[in-house]
């Protein structure tokens, strides 16, 4: 049972930032000074540069790190359980960009691309709560999520992955769901390793799932549907990552699943085909017998 149109309309009102079409993007968000500067902007900036230099190496092995140097706090999260090398490169590149764009004028900022998130602030609470996120689509074009995937089944799969994703139990948890047309849907979920189970559930279920559904089938106030295109959809954020991959099975397996899921229609179709063949054979026999009599 898919979500109702009213539910989708409500979900589409969720505040979000969506990037549709390509997964290659970057986003930077700089906040104004949030607290009085005790040691001067120069001291904070020096601490920040040192922190942004050390954090990628600390996060590369596990894909996540949260660190403090002087009065600067920073967090880094690499998406999708990457190898240490790509994670190090992504966070190092993010550190250079965020420092160049925000470091001299802001004491709180976040940088996001399709490979990782990096954020800093002058308090730990502020660094844990950087509001930045995006939804990306890539791969071959497919129908909207409501037409392909049972949204409630998708929600159940994500819910089952939360205990594995929380408290750093595994870097990335994944599960599968079945699409209505027989395609396989792989769901990948990841939470920052310092999130509790409740915080991980809120990030994945209360934030990421509605963002993905609302972006894939976005019902506007005028009733016009804007569909995200692509067989891969990902919700990127500062505390969690959710990815959905749709892949078609081999043709023989797909046919078997269609027959199994539509057994009544299959039997009826076979009966019609058999009747048509029988009628054709009877007609040919009549023609042969008539020729023989003549």
UniProtKB/TrEMBL annotation:
Domain Gnk2-homologous, residue spans: 26-125
Protein's UniProt keywords contain Nucleotide-binding: no
Keywords: Membrane, Repeat, Signal, Transmembrane, Transmembrane helix
PROSITE patterns membership: GNK2
Domain of life: Eukaryota
Annotated signal peptide: 1-21
Residues spanning the membrane: 263-289
Pfam family, any one: Stress-antifung
InterPro entries (UniProt xref): GNK2, GNK2_sf
PANTHER family cross-referenced by the UniProt entry: CYSTEINE-RICH REPEAT SECRETORY PROTEIN, GENOME ASSEMBLY, CHROMOSOME: II
The protein's name in its UniProt record: Predicted protein
Organism the protein comes from: Hordeum vulgare subsp. vulgare
Lineage, broadest ranks: Eukaryota, Viridiplantae, Streptophyta, Embryophyta, Tracheophyta
């Amino acid at each position: 049972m898919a979500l109702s149109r009213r539910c989708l309309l409500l979900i589409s009102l969720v505040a979000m930032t969506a990037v549709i079409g390509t997964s290659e993007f970057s986003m930077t968000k700089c906040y104004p000074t949030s607290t009085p500067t005790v040691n001067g902007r120069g001291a904070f900036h020096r601490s920040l540069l040192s922190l942004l230099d050390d954090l990628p190496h600390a996060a590369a092995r596990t894909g996540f790190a949260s660190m403090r140097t002087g009065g600067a706090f920073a967090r880094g999260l690499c998406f999708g359980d990457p190898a240490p090398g790509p994670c190090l490169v992504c966070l190092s590149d993010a550190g250079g960009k965020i420092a160049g764009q925000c470091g001299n004028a802001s004491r709180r900022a976040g940088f996001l691309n399709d490979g990782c998130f990096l954020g800093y602030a002058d308090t730990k609470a502020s660094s844990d709560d950087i509001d930045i996120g995006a939804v990306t689509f890539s791969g071959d074009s497919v129908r909207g999520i409501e037409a392909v995937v049972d949204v409630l089944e998708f929600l159940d799969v994500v819910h089952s992955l939360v205990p594995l994703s929380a408290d750093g139990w595994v870097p990335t948890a994944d599960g599968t769901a079945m699409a209505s047309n027989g395609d396989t849907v792989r769901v990948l979920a990841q939470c920052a390793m310092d999130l509790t189970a409740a915080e991980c559930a809120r990030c994945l279920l209360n934030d990421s799932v509605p963002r993905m559904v609302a972006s894939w089938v976005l019902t506007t106030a005028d009733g016009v549907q804007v569909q995200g295109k692509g067989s891969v959809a990902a919700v990127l954020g500062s505390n969690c990552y959710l990815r959905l991959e749709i892949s078609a099975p081999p043709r023989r397996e797909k046919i078997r699943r269609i027959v199994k899921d539509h057994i009544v229609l299959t039997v009826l179709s076979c009966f019609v085909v058999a009747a048509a063949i029988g009628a054709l054979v009877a007609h040919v026999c009549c023609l042969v017998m008539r020729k023989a009599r003549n």
